[in-house]
Amino acid sequence: MNKIYFSSQLLNFYVKAPVAFMLIAICLCLQLHPAMAQSKFSIQGKITDDRNQPLPGVSISEKGTKTGVVTNIDGLYKLEVSSSNAVLHIAFLGFDSKDISISGEHTINAILTPQLKQLNDVVITGYGKTSKKNLVGAISSVNAGEFTQGVVGNPSMLLQGKVPGLTITKSGNPNQTPTVILRGPSTLRSGAQEPFYVIDGVPGAPIDMVAPDDIASIDVLKDGASTAIYGARAANGVIMVTTRRAKTDQFRIAYNAYVGVEKVAKRLEMLTGDELRKYLADNGQVLAPQNNDTIPGTGQLVNTDWQKEVQRTGVSQSHNLSLLGSSKATTYGFSVNYFNNPGIIKGSDLNRLGIRANVGQRAFNDRLRLDFSVLNTTTKQNNVPDAVLYNMLNYLPTLSVKRPDGSYTEDYAGNIRGSSNPAALIANNIDLTKSSKFLATGLAEVKILEGLTYTASLTTQREQYTRNIYYNSLSTLARGNNGKANRVTWANTRNIIESYFNYDKTFGKHNIKLLGGYSWQEDRNGDGFGVTTQGFGSDALSYNNLSLSNPPAGTIVFDNTGNTTLTTLRLISYYARANYQYADKYYFQASLRNDGSSAFGKNNRWGYFPAVSAAWRISQESFLKNNRTFDDLKLRVSYGISGNSLGFDPLTAQLQYSTVGRYYDSGQLINAIAPVQNANPDLKWERTAMLNLGIDFSILKGRISGAIDVYDKQTSDLIWNYPVSTTQYITTTLLANVGKVSNRGIELVLNAEPVSTKNFSWKTTVNLAHNTNKISSLANGQFTLKDIPTAILGGKGQSGNWSQKVLEGQPLGTFTLFHYVGKDKDGISSYQRADGTITTSPSTADLLPAGNAQPKLTYGWSNNLSYKNFDLALFFRGVTGNKILNATLAAVNTPTDAKMTNIAKYTLQESYNDKNSFLISDRFLENGSYLRLENLTVGYSFKINNVYISKIRLYMNVNNVFTITKYTGIDPEIDLGGLTPGIDVRNYYPKTRSFIFGLNAAF
């Protein structure tokens, strides 16, 4: 406990000690160098590539000094150096650097040779970076030019389909957070499957704070050896985000903007008003007069398309203005981003303004580096009730949107039709969330000795949320309440201290890298308050003045959710890593992290997370040194253990009390309080151990390269609420570590450049991933659980049924459904009982396993072509081998209710008397495989001969061009996260197709 909870004096020590040490180190680094007068010597020249094409932007400097320039668009440069014997250092990204002695010449031309780019790319790892050729773990890197394009509100979408093993799903809702899963689900807890994000070295920073145009690259750490350096938070993988920073002697202003027009990609086909009337007439039925409107003054029957009434064409826009610059020892950057994404459902939208700034300073002959950066975003999100998405399908098309008096058509009594007017649901309900996020980081890096560097950073983060909900007096969501308001506001803060040493030294053929550090973090969450009240005399002020409400006694409710439950969580970590490299052939790495968290039981607050890995670069061996096939060939093996503590706070393992009802005492209404959660002093984080075998290769001078990885990922100590006896415990369940889950898979990525000429090039990348998920165990000697019923979807007569189960030996997302066998002689849907007999009245005992939601294969295929100034990008992605439960179609397949709700065109094949047609069964379990042309982009870059303008590119992009699938629902991209993946359940926000027109300009 003493290691976890600091006194203020101890906290001051941990803050001040690194700072004091840094100041002492700075003083030791002070060196005075007398200025020496030198006569200047002028040189000039041209820099070209191996095809004699000029290279603009090449850095040319005098070696050993800070004097330098960059080439212009024609590859030309002029430079004054200190003497005629100076040495030029010529460097350009993607090409081998050169050092050239001037030897008294005034004209120095040079030809640069392209590097094997995929081997020399810089990859960000935990608390460091390395080149791809030196990697010993499974890390996938995606640069800005390779990101998935489109109307992107969350930067994680930039990786969709680009990284093997990384599954990202999202509907068309602009306010929905994408679901991100790496190498299969490894927990039973919803909201705890997402990877851990690190932005510019800041652990746990919100990914949505960064504008997509500000990101330079993203590195995905996948195997246990790569992620274990982040210990208890890395079991789901780690995603490292690197933002754009100024390069040496650079001044650049960039403006990137686009306007996107979004339309619904597909809709569920429902009956028109005339088709519904005919269906009823064919079955001897007729609509009630209240449900069969005519257009006033014409006598013409109404045909309302409710999907059309609530949907719209959304016009999104994004503007990003950035400035990057450097001069001598100072670098700086600033960017502002505005993003507006109106949803295609009226009333929903996302509006965000983000500002980012950073400044860096080097001093004392580059022995000291200081850096300060700030991020701030303000966001507004308007949401519509989920009921809109279902009611736009089933509300009667024979009704007008409004009555002649201007009021919305509505059945407030609820006895004529069993649904609500979707247009009225949008008009009569408000759900607005405002948020502000602030992140500031200060960093100091000191080169103490040759190869020894000390880094200290301090980060502070604050998130402020306010959610305002108002159901007005006409809302069917709060009937009889005369207006109902809910306001909740809360703030989360986080402070982080990172302090670590890096040592990098080469001795002949030996290279050693050492890392040792300490991390301290404090999260203070749920600092807020919320209240719900009702009974307003007017809707004019909506949620803005709650004191005007007149609630009946006992109807004021105070928010007691996790958002407004104040907690303070502390994390302390000690970590170390050692890398050894011999002769650029043999690589070894070992790391260990010791994490302590106040979230877990007092007996298990500390844990160790070790990792080891090795690599053999076979292509550097003498027997392959001169081969004509392989440019690079490397074998990798790694094993590491990491933890999962997502979603936990200091109350998780504690005995908790809460209100459990109200009672009268002496005429007063009193809240009753009782225990609602048992304490578990032995609760600890889930642990994931992963073995990874990999091969990296490059052939034909880098024209073809790739990697193959095979992994075995075993997670133990799964956390779940287990039933316990009240003779031993206060309440009936206990949160405990019991279960195990397994993920085994193989991943392949292949890069190729089939064509590369002066005017035309074609680059292509294919990635494939297969994962087998299985629940290994749900019980042990102390706690037992046969299965976990999930996906209780409800619906007419089905409130107690479940559609999925967590079963030992089966993957997460295993469907358990009634087995549909057809119709009986009366046209009634029939099902197989558990004993094999046939019935029209199945029960939960008849639910049978029926497939699962996990894909057998996910894939992506990128193509980038360029011809002179034109560029074309085509990106395909898809999945295969999974099932989707189309519960939405089941819910609208209700012929017996066709006089009260609309039905799907699919229902025309049903008997009107089929009372079971809507029952969720394997009849509605469909093939979820699809192939989608996700992105098509055509661009043109203008050749600019202007000293002030370096780039102008116009482009047009189509997103979600087409989808090949057998799935009959709105879209096969169904959420694969959480405990109930692969279910389309009446609240699917339609997927969009976007047409984007954009500009990239640099000055």
UniProtKB/TrEMBL annotation:
Residues 423-961 form the TonB-dependent receptor-like beta-barrel domain. It is a multi-pass membrane protein. It comes from the Bacteria. GO terms for cellular component: cell outer membrane. Its main location: membrane. It is found in: Cell outer membrane. InterPro entries: Beta-barrel_TonB, Beta-barrel_TonB_sf, CarboxyPept-like_regulatory, Plug_dom, Plug_dom_sf, TonB-dep_OMP_SusC/RagA, TonB-dep_OMP_SusC/RagA_CS, TonB-dep_rcpt-like. Keywords: Cell outer membrane, Membrane, Receptor, TonB box, Transmembrane, Transmembrane beta strand, Transport. Residues 132-238 form the TonB-dependent receptor plug domain. Belongs to the TonB-dependent receptor family. This is TonB-dependent receptor. It comes from Chitinophaga solisilvae. The lineage of its organism: Bacteria, Pseudomonadati, Bacteroidota, Chitinophagia, Chitinophagales.
